[in-house]
Amino acid sequence: MRHWKLNEIATPDGTRSPVVLHSLEGESRVVLIGLDAGQELGEHQVKESAFLLVVDGKVRVEAGDESIDGGVGELFRFDPDERHSVIAVGQARVMLLLAPWPGEGHYRGDAQPAGSTAS
Question: What is the 3-state secondary structure (H, E, C) of the chain?
Answer without folding.
Answer: CCCCCHHHCCCCCCCCCCEEEEEECCCEEEEEEEECCCCEEEEECCCCEEEEEEEECCEEEEECCEEEEECCCCEEEECCCCCEEEEECCCEEEEEEEECCCCCCCCCCCCCCCCCCCC
